[in-house]
Amino acid sequence: MKIAAVPAPPCDPGVSAPAKFEALSTAGRLARPGLRGLLALQAVRAVLRLGFAATAAMAVGRLVMDEAVDPWLIAAVFALLAAACFAGFAADSMQASAENNVSTRLRTLAGERLSEMPARQLQSLSIGNLAVSMQRHPESIAALQVGHRAATVMMAAGPLLSAMVLCFVSWQAALLVICLTPVMILFFALIGNAIRRRADAQERAFGRLAGQFADRVRTLPTILANHAMAGEEAKLARRLEAYADNTMSVLRIAFANAGIIDFFASLSIAVLAVFLGLGHLKLATIPGFSNLELWQSLFILMIAPEYFAPFRRFSEQYHAKAEGQAAAAALDRLLDAEPVAAKALPVLDRLRLTLPAHGLVAIVGPSGSGKSTLLRRLAGLEPGAMPTPETHSPATEEIAWVSTDAYVPEGSPAEAISWNAGAVDRSRLDDVAGAIGLLDDTLLPGGLDARLDKGGANLSGGQRLRIAVARALLCGRAVLADEPTAKLDRDTAEAVRRMLLEISTTRLVVVATHDRDLAAAADIVVDLVRGNTIEAAA
User: Fold this and answer.
1) Going by C-beta distance under 8 Å and a sequence separation of 6 or more, which residues neighbour residue 11?
2) What is the Cα–Cα distance from 227 to 220, expressed in whole angstroms?
3) Could you give the CA distance from residue 98 to residue 112 in angstroms, rounded to a whole number?
4) Directed axis angle between helix 426-435 and helix 490-504, to 10°?
5) In this structure, are residues 127 and 218 in contact, taking their beta carbons and an 8 Å threshold?
6) CB count, 10 Å around CB of 286?
7) H or E element: which one contains 482?
8) How many other CB atoms are there within 10 angstroms of residue 7's CB atom?
9) What's the CA gap between 146 and 131, in Å, rounded?
10) Structure letter (DSSP) for residue 394
């Protein structure tokens, strides 16, 4: 088998760069159907609450004045109250459902974006930041595009509707509550800048915490070997404390914002109550507040809180705006990062090599010489010049990829080994798994029937690699293996070597390795040594 040149100039003018991800606009499009339904339910709830306030004021006013109360009025009070509660429950359920739908679909789109990234760029991403971006950020963005946007719309429509209802009784009372609105909006603007800065700091602190935690988990054996657990715990504790301080800072401002809204709402209602009381006691004649019936005064006092309720709900959602914007910016930075430039490796561009139809080819050389890069080029995972322009290459055929990051589906080791290999007899699976040491692995209780988490999250790198080798034996394809014996104990490494040699008797196996024993058993050795010199031996 020979390999083909697959030229992919990095500055090809005919290839356009991928479009920006733009998390906010993407989430906005996803949120539109749910947002429309949510706004409809919230509008219905607002109307029902106003209706309840009006009928309750009329009923209570007549009862206090010892006037007859029609049965339909009492029935209307309870019916409107029940309907308002049901509409509120439906609106909250709709909001939760819409936010969950947006976050799920946004996470799916982000995953697709990651799957399209070149392997080198994907490997350059911080594991901690990636975990935060894929798990936490979509929820924050969804809360911004659904909950916060709904609160923003209702903050404009709700008070206007309440003011219109107040005008039926006293336009002066409506004007009084409206006059306090600019003051609250001013506070929103002042607090908004502060909470946005705090949210950005909170996001950075969480990213640093997640990145440091992921790094410590990855290097845990080294930490334990050097008895450095106490020091690393202290470092993580400091990161966690910094994140907690930033979170509390955001919450303090959010609570202060809600307190300001409550203060002005209480102040306006108190002023209305004083004016109405003076009018009823005939102590002062105030236009719009004097000579009113009791039910009209109660009506004003019950509608006034409904005027300020949308501002209060908006203040509760205000921190969601800052968190959502910070999350969207972080997600965009992750998914729109510039591709990582590959290290210039002239030795690969000058390499001339014809690969056999079957046999073991070992690519050796010091770290950084281009072994893994050459392997990724052969697999078609990375653009770049390919050696010897002939008619066939692993990149133009289906291959089996073997490495510690090989794909493992959710299910069992039996399903992972036979994945993409067609129907495989169970006895054959047992033989292959036994030969590679998977049946005797004490860290994999249950053998081939053990439970594997999604993506093989509960597997070690060595277990994942052995599953990939066993799968390669069964699939019948050419094999590309990146450091297949690295970080394995002696017996397991020997089992992997034997299986790769067995595969190479009928198929092509190309390995990038530092393993001298594996290289010594190869049919062809490609040595990428320093100084851009090439040594090939059969």
Assistant:
1) none
2) 10
3) 21
4) 130
5) yes
6) 15
7) strand 478-482
8) 10
9) 23
10) G
Two structure tokens written together for 64: 């206090």
| β-pair partners for 364 | 527
d(CA 452, CA 418): 14
Rounded Cα gap, residues 525 and 538, in angstroms: 7
For β-strands 524-528 and 534-537, DSSP reports them as antiparallel
Identify residue 71 by its one-letter amino acid code: P
Residues 6+ apart with CB under 8 A from 145: 24, 27, 28, 30, 31, 35, 102, 324
Collapsing DSSP states into helix, strand and coil, what is residue 170?
coil
Name the token pair of 405.
């990051």
Q: Nearest to residue 350, comparing CAs of 532, 530, 511, 536?
A: 532
Residue 410's closest CA among 455, 461, 458, 466? 455
| Structure-block tokens of residue 339 | 């591709």
Nearest to 259, CA basis, from 181, 158, 191? 191
Q: Which two tokens stand for residue 465?
A: 């690699």
Q: Tell if the pTM clears 0.90, that is, is over it.
A: no
| pLDDT tens digits in sequence order for the chain, 538 residues long | 333 333 333 333 333 445 677 888 888 888 888 899 999 999 999 899 888 888 888 888 888 877 777 888 889 889 999 999 999 899 999 999 999 999 899 888 888 888 777 766 776 777 767 777 787 888 888 888 898 888 888 888 888 888 888 888 888 888 887 887 777 667 666 666 666 666 666 666 666 666 666 666 666 666 776 777 787 778 777 777 877 777 777 677 667 766 777 777 787 788 888 888 887 777 777 777 777 778 888 888 888 888 888 877 877 776 677 778 878 887 887 777 666 555 556 566 566 667 788 889 888 887 777 787 778 777 777 666 555 434 345 544 678 888 877 778 777 778 778 787 666 777 777 788 777 777 766 666 667 777 777 767 777 777 788 888 888 888 878 888 888 888 778 888 888 888 898 888 888 899 988 888 888 888 888 887 754 444 444 4
| Token pair 């053998």 in the structure block, residue | 447
Q: Under a CB-based contact definition with an 8 Å cutoff, are residues 526 and 513 in contact?
A: no
